[in-house]
Specification:
mainly alpha; two-stranded antiparallel ribbon
Amino acid sequence: MPPLADKVDKLFRTIRTNGREYTYDEVARGCSQLSGGTFSKTYVWQLRTGQRDNPTKRHLEALAAFFRVPAAYFFDDDTAERVDAQLAIASAMGNAEVRDIALRAMSMDDSGRKHLARIIHEVSLLHSAASSRGQSGRGNGTTDDPEGRDTGGTTGGGE
């Protein structure tokens, strides 16, 4: 997938409404309202899938405004990295278990947080080892929808 399509896809996957992805129609209508121009759901789909990869500045600005990211996200690597990191944090904090761990960690002193970080690291290593042996994927707390998107299980390793 071309870099623009990757970025548009990431916005769809991480910036959600009522716990679900925005539809192409919702994004097209929102972008049309924000830009005063026309957007079709087909055009939005084409941008997301890489079928179209040369949108106008107005289109990029409308997409950025709709998803509430800076327009520079689409063409500046430093901005994209910063926004992607913020999106990863926001997405993780949408998971109740992750949020609970973060809130509990906030009440710990530095030593407690260091111990917790070490425990999480060790569990992550164990999970990685089990995955490489083909033993994960069953009973790991994740669920996928029919299209293969993660629906918010308890394992980490997201973007």
